[in-house]
Amino acid sequence: MAASLETVEQVRALDKYKYGFVTDIEAETAPKGLNEDIVRFISAKKAEPEWLLEWRLKAYRHWLTMPEPTWQKVTFPAIDYQDAYYYSAPKSPDDGPKSLDEVDPKLLETYEKLGIPLSEQKLLAGVAVDAVFDSVSVATTFRKNLEEVGIIFCPISEAVKNHPELVRKYLGSVVPYGDNKHACLNSAVFTDGSFAYIPKGVRCPMELSTYFRINAQNTGQFERTLIIADEGSYVSYLEGCTAPQRDENQLHAAVVELITLDDAEIKYSTVQNWYPGDEHGKGGIYNFVTKRGACRGRNSKISWTQVETGSAITWKYPSCILQGDNSVGEFYSIAITNNYQQADTGTKMIHLGKNTRSRIIAKGISAGRSDATYRGLVRIGAKAEGARNFTQCDSLLIGDKCGAHTVPYIETKNRKAIVEHEATTSRISEDQLFYCRQRGLSQEDAVALVVNGFCREVMQQLPMEFAVEAQKLVGISLEGSVG
Amino acid sequence: MLEIKNLHATVDGKPILNGIDLTIEAGEVHAMMGPNGSGKSTLSYVLAGREGYEATDGAVLFKGKNLLEMAPEERAGEGVFLAFQYPVEIPGVPNTTFLKEALNSVRRYRGENELDAMQFVKLVREKTKRLHMSDDMLKRAVNVGFSGGEKKRNEALQMAVLEPCLAILDETDSGLDIDALKTVAEGVNLLRRPDNALLIITHYQRLLDYIVPDHVHVLAGGRIQASGGKELALELEKSGYAAFSATAAA
Amino acid sequence: MPDTIPFANHYGALRDALPGQDLPWLSRLRSDALARFAASGLPTPRQESWKYTSLRPLEKAGFGVTGAPRACISIDRAPSLLPAASEHHRLVFVDGYHRADLSTPGGLPAGAELTTLREMLAREPAWLERHLGALSASGVEGDQPLLALNTAMMMNGFVLRLAEGTVLHEPIEVVHLGGAGDRPLAYHPRNLIVLAPRAQATLIEHYTHMGEQPYYANIGTEVTLAEGAVLHHYKLQAEALDAFHTATVHAEVGPDALYDAFGMTTGARLSRNEIAVRLAGAGANCHLNGAYLVRGKQHCDNTTRIDHLVPDTACSEVFKGVVDDEARAVFQGKIVVHRDAQRTNGHQLSKVLLLSDKAEIDTKPELEIYADDVVCSHGATAGDLDHDALFYLRARGIPEVQARAMLIEAFLAESVHNIAAQGICPALMSSIGHWLAGRPGEN
Prior knowledge:
The complex is a heterotrimer of chains A (about 475), B (about 250) and C (about 450). Chain A has helices at about 1-20, 35-45, 50-65, 100-105, 105-115, 120-125, 145-150, 155-160, 165-170, 180-190, 430-440, 445-455, 455-460, 465-475, and strands at about 125-135, 135-140, 150-155, 195-200, 205-215, 225-230, 235-240, 250, 255-260, 265-270, 285-295, 300-310, 315, 320, 330-335, 340-350, 355-365, 370-380, 390-400, 405-410, 420-425. Chain A is an alpha/beta fold and about 475 residues long. Chain A is globular. In chain A, helix 3 runs antiparallel to helix 10 (about 180-190) and helix 11 packs across helix 12. In chain A, a hairpin with a 2-residue loop joins strand 1 and strand 2. With about 250 residues, chain B is an alpha/beta fold. Chain B is about 40% helix and about 30% strand. In chain B, the strands form three sheets. Chain B has a six-stranded mixed sheet, sandwiched between helices. In chain B, strands 2-1-4-5 form a four-stranded antiparallel sheet. A two-stranded antiparallel sheet of chain B has the order 7-8. In chain B, a hairpin with a 2-residue loop joins strand 4 (about 55-60) and strand 5 (about 65). The model of chain B has no long low-confidence stretch (mean pLDDT about 90). Chain C is about 20% helix and about 35% strand. In chain C, the strands form two sheets. A ten-stranded mixed sheet of chain C has the order 2-1-5-8-10-12-14-16-18-20, covered by helices on one side. In chain C, strands 3, 4, 6, 7, 9, 11, 13, 15, 17 and 19 form a ten-stranded mixed sheet that branches. Chain C is globular and about 70 Å long. The interface of A and C includes residues 398, 404, 411 and 419 of A. Strand 21 (about 420-425) of chain A pairs antiparallel with strand 20 (about 375-385) of chain C.
């Protein structure tokens, strides 16, 4: 933590003359609202190089010109961007948490209940964790072990300092700052996130994991994750998230960029359990996330697996740009909505290289008065000879007040490509529920069992550490969905 | 153990059972026979608590408790087991997961300790062995892609694992060839104990060659038209249900 | 909105020639529609439902209008999709104008009327007031600028009305011929089909061309099927390859009624077939099927929407296409199951063969579901001919060009042979045959 202390000192020195935040330096949050000064403040806090500040400012200026996206099938009141804090950090590093146990025992308890790998015990089982609270990365474990094989795994703010050439080369190369309104905001104000670089030929010996947490009130979280898998390398990455229950809506606008070079593979798994709001739809996180991977190299592979059960609104399309010949993109998704949740989620598979392959398996479950939409794009470029896509979307409805929607876009410009898409929608089977109950299962256990069966194809894609927890989460998310 | 008094029941508002009286004691095997549409399956669903099958009059007491007031899973917990005529497929749920969930739910209900993975596997191995079943069936999703015989055998396995007090076999013989029928019957016979009872619902007599009943009842028009010993089943096989259907219609 | 001025200006030029200008309700209908069109302009790909179809070429083409028939070629006979020997009832329109001399509507049984919009306006304006624009006004897909344009400038079209229980055993054929004028023309036919309870009919619409001029046909059709009514509605769009064709259909299907539609597209430089069906009574059913064969630089768009509004309705939808050269096809199919529309069955399938390296297909099947007791599905495939099948045929000695033609024909024949009115199958199969014959051998 000494390095961080130093940083704060430097920032203090900088701020005094340059940006006039003298009185605010000690404060744990930047002033409410968003303007160029806030962007400069964040950059200064992080002691960032000039190029990054310039990039942030370009993004901010562009953001001002962008309209809110309207095509998605979700409704919510307009966001007041001035009514949020864009930087929130522990007052001084000494007050900050040193290890995960110190952070928030209640929170760990919650996670313990869900079994998400955060406890020391689990850490010892071999998952390296980077934990991001509100805006800053507070702990990264197992760094030493990883460094031995040349893997860089650290907060992105540190990577900016220690590996500027990598960050500068790849940051924004998959998701340019002008990509969409939320990604643009993130580019301007992102405060931390995880960075991983897997060198040539290295198979990462353990799961890497980032754990995100929005803690403070009225705070947006804008983390940025960048993972580069160099030639012939492999990494499996896990991401988990939570937020406390609050009555107001909080904005989470993250960006994740993945890059695989020749023969490299990244497996990215998410269990998203942000606070969904209460049963009347009050509160909850707006989860507006841009996740995209570029298979730049030949024979490379990016696989997204997500279990989305949280958030009041989810707006998220983990995508693959299949540039390298023979590259492979996968998207396995479970999206569960209950009460008043809204989810508009799916993927984009952009086939550019020859013989590129993609596979989409999406399972949507709607209950209560919620709406779940699968929105997916499969685009076969004119040069993507021999490309193949298979898409299967299934929706399950629990109760007659919810909605399930499927909106695929399939664009094919190559006759030597084969594209297949299938979708079904049906309700949870009364016969199955009765059969389970006759064998002694409670109504809720029966629903959880049947839904887990419905999702099995996706569950099987999750690393072991996550799979059991995700299955329990399915049950918890659907609590109270059947009378 | 089971006392049914003047049970009337409707399905979608249509009266199907019109006053059933039946008492089953521990250790007994009862066969309920009758033509199609006589209300046999309805009786089994009413006893198991299926939605849409409504008891409109009468009472059902199970070990002295009012069965009709209970949720289906509570009835299972009390020890009522229904072997389905058409076992339901549940895609994606492995048979073992299902069995374990069911067994532990029932044990919880009875205030017994749940079995851990090791104990459970041991128990299931023992039961599959006794029923001459392969482990392969345990790994597959519940009833998905099972042949008719496999489904019925799977019902027998569940029954063996859950050890019910009262097992209701709803047309377990339908769609089975003679070999499968024998295996299932063997499985059922293994479970016969002085402290439990069986209610076998069937259209044909042939299952009763393998599971010999103490009492045979003829159901027609939603009422028990006749009761007797096992010889009644043989008699029916010869003369058919016509006589009883006529009585019911009158 | 400068780009709308050409079309909006047409109104001024046409005003005096438009029928029913003495009817206040109709004038209001037209002026409201014109205002809507002027406000929105031609649709652009910025609109979600026009994402894949740009009307720039239409805008740039520049069409005129005319208040009177200006056929510069003489036509003494209109083509038919039905065998010459078969009895049927026929109306013929040339450049949007009714040609009584070519039409043979006669001999309909009591309770059946086949006439023109103009005639109906003169005879029963009050009845038309109830039906004209009634379905499109329910505005299922927001504003439809092309339909608004049609409403503002509709000149004529056909009206089919069947009284309760009237069953037509002979099919009705309506032929629209374009391009006969002395200059490029735009016209806006408006058709109305109203079937009373338990009435039944088979209707065949044939859009093709006679003259040399490019033209723009912008058609509006409203179909109302009362309880137990059955309409088999077939359409062959074989317009000239430099023509533009946009058609908007609204159908409302009552209890136990069936709307059975099949549309085949081979013509037009740019076409859009937009069909919206509202299943509004228990037991309502619709089959919405189609086939298309496009090549060169043709652009063919089929956009459908089926609304399940009440419980116990069903739909099935199969579209098959063959896309060659640099042609582009679009299929957008939306099935909406409204709140409480329980026990809905909805199935949709889109299958496309791409025959060239520059051909493109954009597919957007869509399910929007707000009721839980439903069984809905959609499927979509795109790709080349089945290589195994091709190899199999060649291994049996069939030359590749012929083998390909056989497979394409077989791919489409399935759809054609499912048509209830077998009488038009030979004509449809022969247009597939013609299309294939016009296809240069490849490889």
